Amino acid sequence: MDSFELNKIVGAILGTLLFVMGVGFLAEAIYAPKEGPGPGYELPTPVEGASTTQAAAAAPKEEPLPVLLASASAEKGAKVAKKCESCHNFGKGEPNKVGPTLWDVVGSPIADLSGYSFSDALKAKNPDGKTVWTYASLNEWLTKPKDFAPGTKMSFAGISSATERADLLAYIATKADNPVPFPQPEAAPAAADTTAAPAAADNSAAPNASDTTAPAATETTAPAQSPAPADTTAPAQTTAPAETTAPAASSDQSSSATTAAPAAESAPASSDTQAAAPAAAAPAASGGSGLAAMLASADAAKGAKDARACQACHSFDKGGPNKVGPNLYDIVGRKIATEPGYSYSDALKAKDPNGDTAWTYDLLDQWLTKPKDFAPGTKMSYAGIAQPEKRADVLAYLQSLSDNPVPFPAN
């Protein structure tokens, strides 16, 4: 092949390349893509600090722990505690398991229990050996143990529901000879029904209902998994003094108690199914005309709802056990400080030195108004019910808790 033929071949190749390049440049010029984000919606300019405020507003506000505890159910808490039955014991004198025993944990020093080895992370929460478990710190622990004590050996994820945690704490509170009273709400919100009836029990060994003296927990304090039988859901604390005579309604009694027992002829018709008690059923109780007038229009159904604030401290059913406070079935007409198996304070016993003074509606109204004024020195830490109408409703509810209800005093 001579050089002329070779030049023609090379020229053809170069010409083809130039043609292809030219077509590419031309196409790019004609169909050049538009730069930019393309179709869309213009977003508002964020305001500094707005996201935090909006997020806080959107998040549901959790009730304060004292308010939750005031209406917590130890019975429900016992069911929650079953989650941990493989790790903890709850009974008095029972041994440690994978986790420490939780008997009398409320108010005991953090990470300080004979025979149990706690993690360094939990020991660090009590460096001076004087820090005790409070209801607040237990609540924080139960929410997420690994956040409360980073590095803890506790593998439980936590309980996200504040109500479940409060129920569990109410159950743990019953696991002691001298249960620590619940902290009192600083201001009793209406939604929490904390002004309805005495919530704390008269506890001789327990300090005042302060969050700083409350429960002691363990490395695995997360939901206490008591292997105890179902009837321990609301164990009778026969040795735990708690003198509140105001109702602590159980979860199922609040709706049924008003129809369970007949009311007196002058009693409020709080329920369509509430029968009138015969006047001869029991002697009329004493009471001033003002109280008698309020009792005549009182609503036992409302009283049952108000009484829910004390369900962690009292049982209301017939034959029910004493808890932090005594059983309140058939309380009207009962001799003061005489419930079998319950240890009362000397202050309340002094109200009946001869053993023949019974609770009347008038005396119960005085007690519910302010226990510490009625019996100075009482171990009962509940502040009282300021509203006379609410006290009358609670008394109407208490009247229904009897086989032979005591008639209201004549107006």
Structure characterization notes:
Helices cover about 30% and strands about 0% of the residues. With about 400 residues, it is mainly α.
Question: How much helicity do the residues have?
Answer: 25-40%
Provide the succession of SSEs: HHHHHHHHHHHHHHH
Head-to-tail CA distance between termini? 137 Å
- Report the count of strand segments: 0
Separate helix tally: 15
Summed over residues and divided by their number, the pLDDT gives a mean of 73
Radius of gyration: 34 Å
**Oligomeric state of the chains present here:** single chain
Low-confidence stretches: 187-218, 220-287
Largest sheet: none
Shape: elongated
What share of residues are in beta strands? under 5%
Structural class: mainly alpha
Distinctive features:
411 residues, mainly alpha, 15 helices
Q: What is this structure's SSE topology?
A:
Elements: H1 3-30, H2 50-58, H3 65-70, H4 74-81, H5 120-123, H6 135-143, H7 145-148, H8 162-173, H9 253-260, H10 289-296, H11 300-306, H12 346-349, H13 361-369, H14 371-374, H15 388-400
